[in-house]
Design brief:
The chain is an alpha+beta fold. It has a single domain, classed as B-lactam Antibiotic, Isopenicillin N Synthase, Chain (Jelly Rolls). An 8-stranded mixed β-sheet has the order 1-2-10-7-12-5-4-3. Helix 1 crosses helix 5, helix 2 packs across helix 5 and helix 4 packs antiparallel against helix 5. It starts with 5 loop residues before the first strand and ends with a helix. It binds 2-oxoglutaric acid and fe (ii) ion. Fe (ii) ion binds next to loops. Belongs to the iron/ascorbate-dependent oxidoreductase family. This is 2-oxoglutarate (2OG) and Fe(II)-dependent oxygenase superfamily protein. It comes from Hibiscus syriacus. GO terms for molecular function: metal ion binding; oxidoreductase activity. InterPro entries: DIOX_N, IPNS-like_FE2OG_OXY, IPNS-like_sf, Iron_ascorbate_oxido_reductase, Oxoglu/Fe-dep_dioxygenase_dom.
C-alpha cells in the first residue's frame, strides 16, 4: 500500500534558515509536495498535547446544542456548524486561535462557571502547529526564490482553528463523510485521534489512506497557495471515508490570508514561459461572497473563480 512521506520536524526549534538541518528538511518537503502534494510532519512535541486537546474537544462537543449554538456566527466558515445530518460532521471554527485573547471570551460564554483549560489547551497546540506552518511556508517560498515575501505573508495570515467531530457511521461499509475536495486556504495542518479516515488522491488518481502516528501532523496544500505560487504547487485533493462506531476527532489549523491582502503571484514567478494564470483576489472577500456555495459536494472552486 502506498503511504505519504513522513518528514521529521521534531527538532522544530533547531530547524533554522541557513542551517544544514534546514536545507535537508526543505529538500524533503519539496520532494514530498512534488510527488504527493502532501506529507506527514512528525513532531514529537505534538504528543504532549494529544490527550488534553482531544479531551477539550470532547468537552466542547458534549455541551448542549443550545450552548454550542452560542458560537454560531454571521461570518461564513467561522463559528459552530452542526449538528450533522447523516454522513456529515460537526465543527467549531475560531479565527486567530494562536492568540489567547481570541479564545478566552468564547470559553467564558461556553462555560460561564469557568474552564481556563479549554482555551489554554487549544491556544498552546495551535501555537505549536502555526510555528510548523510558518517553517513550511518559509521553506516553500525559499525553494521558489521568493523568500523575501515570507514575512508579509505570515503577517497577513489568519491561523484558524477548526475542530471537527465525525460520528461513527455504525457500519463496516465505508461511508463518505467529506466528499473529495481541495481546501481553499493556503496550507491546512490536521491532527487526528486514533480513528483514520482521511484519503489523499495522487495526480495519477490513486487514493491513499492516511494512517498517521500519534506524533504526526498531516500537511496539505490549498488552492490559495497554488494561486499565490502561479500554479507552482498543486492543491491536495482529499476526502474523508470512515467505518465503525467510534467518534473521529480532528483538530486542524487552516492558514489563510486576511481581508485586505491581495493574493497575487509575485512578479518573480511570472515570465514568458510561466504566464500569469490567476487574477489577484482577496481571500476573505471570496469566502464572504461565495460561501453559500461552499457546502459539501458543491464547493466553489477558487482556481476556477480566479483563472485567467
Ligand atoms: O477530517 C479530515 O481529516 C479532513 C477534514 C477536511 O478535509 C476539511 O475540513 O476540509
Ligand atoms: Fe479539506
Amino acid at each position: 500500500m502506498a503511504k505519504i512521506p513522513v518528514i521529521d520536524f521534531s527538532k522544530l526549534d533547531l530547524i533554522k534558515p541557513g542551517s544544514l538541518e534546514w536545507d535537508w528538511v526543505k529538500s524533503q518537503v519539496m520532494g514530498a509536495l512534488e510527488a504527493y502534494n502532501c506529507f506527514e510532519a512528525s513532531v514529537d512535541r505534538a504528543v504532549e498535547h494529544r490527550e488534553p486537546v482531544f479531551r477539550a474537544m470532547e468537552e466542547f462537543f458534549h455541551l448542549p446544542l443550545e450552548t454550542k449554538r452560542l458560537c454560531e456566527s454571521e461570518k461564513p466558515l467561522r463559528g459552530y456548524f452542526g449538528p450533522p445530518p447523516l454522513g456529515l460532521h460537526e465543527s467549531l471554527s475560531i479565527d486567530d486561535a494562536h492568540v489567547a485573547e481570541n479564545l478566552e471570551p468564547l470559553t467564558t460564554t461556553l462555560w460561564p462557571q469557568g474552564n481556563t483549560s479549554f482555551s489554554k489547551t487549544m491556544v498552546s497546540f495551535i501555537q505549536l502547529v502555526s510555528e510548523l506552518e510558518k517553517t513550511i511556508m518559509r521553506m516553500i517560498l525559499e525553494s521558489f526564490g521568493v523568500e523575501k515575501y515570507t514575512d508579509e505573508l505570515i503577517d497577513s495570515t489568519n491561523y484558524q482553528l477548526r475542530a471537527l467531530k465525525y460520528e461513527g457511521p455504525n457500519t463496516n461499509e465505508p461511508v463518505v463523510m467529506s466528499v473529495p475536495h481541495h481546501d481553499l486556504n493556503m496550507i491546512t495542518l490536521l491532527y487526528q485521534n486514533e480513528i483514520n479516515g482521511l484519503g489523499i488522491q495522487t495526480e495519477a488518481g490513486e487514493w491513499i489512506d492516511v494512517k498517521p502516528s500519534p506524533n504526526s501532523i498531516i500537511v496539505i496544500i490549498g488552492e490559495s497557495l497554488s494561486v499565490w505560487l502561479n500554479g507552482r504547487l498543486s492543491p491536495t485533493r482529499h476526502r474523508v471515508v470512515t467505518t465503525g462506531n467510534r467518534v473521529r476527532h480532528v483538530v486542524g489549523l487552516f492558514a489563510r490570508t486576511r481581508g485586505g491582502y491581495l493574493v497575487k503571484a509575485p512578479s518573480e514567478l511570472v515570465d514568458d514561459e510561466n504566464p500569469r494564470l490567476f487574477k489577484p483576489y482577496d481571500h476573505e472577500d471570496f469566502i464572504e461572497h461565495f460561501s453559500t456555495q461552499l457546502d459539501q459536494g458543491n464547493r466553489t472552486n477558487l482556481i476556477t473563480y480566479c483563472s485567467i
